[in-house]
From TrEMBL:
Example of a GO MF term: metalloendopeptidase activity
Location in the cell: Cell envelope
Keyword Zinc listed: yes
A GO CC term attached to the entry: cell envelope
Domain M23ase beta-sheet core: start-end pairs: 312-406
Source species of the chain: Microbulbifer hydrolyticus
Domain Csd3-like second N-terminal residue range list: 183-300
Name by which UniProt lists this protein: Murein DD-endopeptidase MepM/ murein hydrolase activator NlpD
């Protein structure tokens, strides 16, 4: 029996079936046991080796080794201690839950039992590529637990109980949040200089959204414009995992500075406002695309590029890459969505009683006739369908049935409601510290900008 216990082949085979932590725990336990026997019977060991051995080891050291071995065994993953097999799978493009169960070696019957365990299990039918699943399976091939890792902050767990039923549990962690500040001067473009300043594409798009009613980012941006922004950075276990929302931001465009601050009112609704409580959100945004340039302006006497005749150009053309998202300029209802030889794929939206916006030459439509839409909801993507010489969006704005210049009409339309008087004290308590913090961050940058101007003069 002693030979079999110390057989190297047997130990090697055991190592293949146990994780490293368990191998270390078992090794430590074996070493502690052997050492205890060795210390407690030195005479027997000396006779066996025909050597006179005198070995003394403090009892405290022996006790410490034994305690560490016991602790290592206790800390070992429960799944292995109970004889469970652990399989981890990552959701790939095109994967179904059946594919994942098959790769894990679990029968379809087990899968259907889990799916029928309750309404919470239905979410397993909607998996996203990149999500991770951890299966724990017993020796008979029965699923004991399934963990779905939606992201690093949330985990869904289904565990089989003694009644052979699955129990649902949601585990969530809170990320640590830290305030971050970025500022930049526009030298090339908003995206290029924003990226150099350390902003993600999502934050740049969010900033463009905040000022979308005041600044036309396809037409108004100039070299020398500046922005400063405060936002949250999210960390988990010392590692950055993402960004939170913009808290306060300023943008200086052609010498005029716009400021906005994020506020959640007493009803739980969150929006952006000027420091004095006016809404940043107008009834309509300035441009229905974030990326692009104006390739053709509103012009009642334009020479048509295809037919070479004088035909009114009743809208604004935004040249942009095919597939660029197109947003609804305001809240409304889709009154037409279809295809025609001239317009290609198109969407018409009614906003209240007086206003209609039109979107032509779309690559794809994302909405249907009769559908209600919100401001900045994606209604389609830029394309070159119909009479179009290249990928672009043709955008029209009608007031009481008459075409108006989309680039200028929005400035004349009313904004959304400002902060109510009853809410103003609460608004100031929340937002004034953010404005003060942004001003403190901006002071060094403003001082440097002033020095640059003085040196030039």
């Amino acid at each position: 029996m002693q030979k079999q216990r110390n057989n190297p082949r047997l130990l090697g085979a055991m190592g293949k079936h146990f994780p490293r932590t368990h191998a270390l725990a078992a090794g430590a336990a074996s070493f502690a046991l052997a050492l205890t026997l060795f210390v407690s019977t030195p005479e027997v060991e000396a006779k066996r080796t025909s050597l006179e051995v005198s070995l003394t080891l403090p009892e405290e050291a022996v006790q410490q080794i034994q305690e560490e071995a016991t602790a290592a065994a206790i800390d070992a993953p429960q799944s292995v201690m109970e004889g469970l097999r652990v399989v981890q799978e990552t959701v790939r493009n095109g994967d179904t839950l059946s594919d994942l169960f098959q790769r894990a070696g679990i029968s379809s019957a087990e899968m259907y039992q889990l799916l029928s365990s309750g309404k919470e299990a239905k979410q397993l039918a909607k998996l996203v590529p990149g999500e991770e699943l951890t299966f724990q399976i017993d020796g008979e091939g029965s699923l004991q637990t399934l963990e779905l890792h939606r992201d690093r902050l949330s985990k869904v767990e289904f565990s089989r109980n003694s009644s052979d039923e699955y129990k649902y549990a949601l585990h969530q962690r809170e990320a640590e949040r830290y305030t971050a500040f970025r500022e930049a001067k526009i030298e090339s473009s908003l995206f290029v200089d924003g990226t150099k300043a350390g902003l993600s594409n999502n934050l740049i798009m969010e900033m463009a959204d905040i000022f979308g009613s005041d600044i036309d980012f396809a037409l108004d941006i100039r070299k020398g414009d500046r922005f400063s922004v405060i936002f949250d950075e999210k960390f988990l276990d010392g590692e950055k995992i993402g960004n939170g929302a913009i808290q306060a931001v300023t943008f200086t465009n052609q010498g005029k500075t716009f400021s906005a601050v994020r506020y959640t009112d007493s009803n739980g609704d969150t929006n952006y406002y000027t420091p004095d409580g006016k809404s940043m959100r107008k009834a309509f945004i300035r441009t229905p695309v974030d990326i692009g340039r104006i390739s053709s302006h509103f012009n009642p006497r334009r020479l048509h590029p295809i037919f070479k005749t004088r035909r009114p150009h009743n809208g604004t053309d935004y040249a942009a890459p095919r597939g660029t998202p197109v947003y609804s300029a305001g809240d409304g209802r889709v009154i037409k969505a279809g295809y025609s030889k001239a317009n290609g794929n198109y969407v018409f939206i009614q906003h209240g009683e007086r206003y209609i916006t039109r979107y032509l030459h779309l690559n794809k439509r994302k909405v249907k006739r009769g559908q209600r839409v919100k401001q900045r909801q994606v209604i389609g993507t830029v394309g070159a369908t119909g009479y179009a010489t290249g990928p672009h969006l043709h955008y029209e704005f009608l007031v009481d049935g008459h075409h108006r210049n989309p680039a200028t009409i929005v400035r004349k339309l009313p904004k959304a409601k400002a902060i109510a008087k009853s809410e103003m004290a609460r608004f100031q308590t929340q937002t004034q510290p953010l404005i003060a913090q942004l001003e403190r961050f901006e002071q060094p940058a403003l001082a440097q900008n002033a020095e640059e101007k003085d040196s030039v003069n």
